[in-house]
Automatic annotation (TrEMBL), chain A:
This is Multifunctional methyltransferase subunit trm112-like protein. Interacts with TRM9. GO terms for molecular function: methyltransferase activity; protein heterodimerization activity. Keywords: Methyltransferase, Transferase.
From TrEMBL, chain B:
The keyword Flavoprotein does not apply. It is found in: Cytoplasm; Nucleus. Belongs to the class I-like SAM-binding methyltransferase superfamily. BUD23/WBSCR22 family. GO terms for cellular component: cytoplasm; nucleolus. Residues 55-157 form the Methyltransferase type domain. This is S-adenosyl-L-methionine-dependent methyltransferases superfamily protein. Residues 201-290 form the 18S rRNA (guanine(1575)-N(7))-methyltransferase Bud23 C-terminal domain. One of its GO terms (molecular function) is rRNA (guanine) methyltransferase activity. CDD domains: AdoMet_MTases (cd02440). PANTHER family: 18S RRNA (GUANINE-N(7))-METHYLTRANSFERASE-RELATED, METHYLTRANSFERASE-RELATED. Residues 211-292 are annotated as: Disordered. It comes from Rhynchospora pubera. Residues 220-234 have a biased composition (Acidic residues). Residues 244-259 have a biased composition (Basic residues).
Length: 122, 292
């Protein structure tokens, strides 16, 4: 699972009002190289919750994202490279996503997060 | 062999051996690729060469997702079968896949997705596998969460195999209630083998952008799967929007049954008026069986 996906996921357990962002606990992760596409990065940037991306990247040991980010930084190649790396090249293989409100853990195995809710959570 | 939906819930039906069979059948691969290409076409994404973030609902082993990747897009896939997803990972698909139940809601932030496709999956929502599964609740949760996570003006194209009209209508009803506008595009309506239905839904009110293209098989073109060539009618495909005009009921004034002559006369009258009337053929006013 890449951080792009993590940035979009929200916990939808019944009754939870703020299920975003899910806290990322990573036991195993890898880097997979992907071609950088500046157009895609510029297009997706407005939809990204920066603080969530920052925290998730830090959980994977990548601390090179700036604290704050705004659209003007998208013209900098250096920023684009870091953004690209954090968003698309870091893959979580084993770990868990934790709901910020209930603490419920969604395990990640073989890169696949298990988002199935139990009967009483629907 | 009854259809898969009547045999077992999807997470059980698509076990390891079925999943492998599905993914290694060249016929299935080819069909899925074609359907996915068509669904992507119907998504009507802007032609700006910018990759989009799409959803593949019921992504299975990643056959349809591959089409999205080949067209340069990023995608997030959902499936309920661990076996199918394991194969997707094995095949190193480029999208991220999640183990999830679409009937529980997609769990995505509002307005983040540029489009969604689903190939041969949504009809599974209509079958109650567990006592707590009420199909209506699941359809509501699915369409509600889908509507929320799509960006304004984005589309969802759902190719599905409904068992009957009731199912198609139920699915359509819940899509409309969630706020979608749209309709159904039917490719090759006359061929039982090749016929495919695509539910094309748009976020936001109906407009020029939501105008649907004609289904394939409209202009007399024959699809390659067509092995029966006895239909020479080219009827207009029924594309219905939220306001469907009510069918007029035939009123029998005389004691006798209406007969073919009366029907043909009436059709000619309507044509003279300028109405859209299907062409006459050997099937017009043919005697049907009592239970038709």
């Amino acid at each position: 699972m890449r951080l792009l996906t993590h940035n979009m996921l929200s916990c939808n357990i019944k009754g939870v009002t703020n299920g975003f962002p899910l806290k990322l606990e990573a036991d195993k992760w890898v880097t997979k190289e992907v071609d950088l596409n500046a157009d895609f990065l510029r297009g997706i940037f407005p939809k990204i919750e920066w603080s969530a991306l920052l925290a998730a990247a830090r959980a994977l040991g990548f601390a090179e994202l700036p604290e704050q980010a705004d659209a003007s930084m998208l013209s900098s190649d250096d920023f684009l490279r870091r953004f690209h790396h954090a968003l698309l090249e870091l893959h979580v293989e084993e770990g868990a996503l934790v709901c910020p409100e209930t603490g419920r853990k969604f395990p990640i195995n073989k890169g696949i997060p298990n988002m199935l809710l139990h009967e009483d959570e629907v | 062999m009854p259809r898969p939906e009547l045999q077992a819930p999807p997470e059980i039906f698509y076990n390891d051996s079925e999943a492998r069979k599905y993914t290694t059948s060249s016929r299935i691969i080819e069909i899925q690729a074609r359907i996915s290409e068509r669904a992507l076409e119907l998504l009507n994404l802007p032609n700006d060469r910018v990759p989009k973030l799409l959803l593949d609902i019921g992504c299975g082993s990643g056959l349809s997702g591959e089409t999205l990747s080949e067209n340069g897009h990023h995608w997030i896939g959902y499936d309920i079968s661990q076996s199918m997803l394991d194969i997707a990972v094995e095949r190193e698909v480029e999208g991220d896949v999640l183990l999830g139940d679409m009937g529980q809601g997609l769990g995505l932030r509002p307005g983040v997705v540029d489009g969604a496709i689903s190939i041969s999956a949504v009809q599974w929502l209509c079958y109650a596998d567990k006592s707590s599964h009420e199909p209506r609740m699941r359809l509501k949760a699915f369409f509600g969460s889908l509507y929320r996570c799509l960006a304004r003006g984005a589309r969802a194209v759902l190719q599905l195999y409904a068992e009957n009209m009731n199912q198609s209508e139920m699915i359509m009803t819940y899509a409309m209630r969630a706020g979608f506008s749209g309709g159904v595009v039917v490719d090759w309506p006359h061929s039982s083998k090749a016929r495919k239905e695509y539910l094309v839904l748009t976020c936001g009110p109906a407009s020029l952008q939501t105008a649907l293209p004609k289904g394939k098989g409209e202009d007399g073109e024959m699809c390659s799967d067509e092995d029966d060539s006895d239909d020479d009618e080219n009827q207009t495909v029924g594309v219905y929007e939220r306001n469907r005009p009510r069918k007029k009921l035939k009123v029998n004034k005389k004691g006798k049954s209406k007969g073919k002559q009366w029907v043909l006369k009436k059709k000619e009258q309507m044509r003279r008026k300028g109405n859209d009337v299907p062409p006459d053929s050997k099937y017009t006013a043919r005697k049907r069986k009592a239970y038709f």
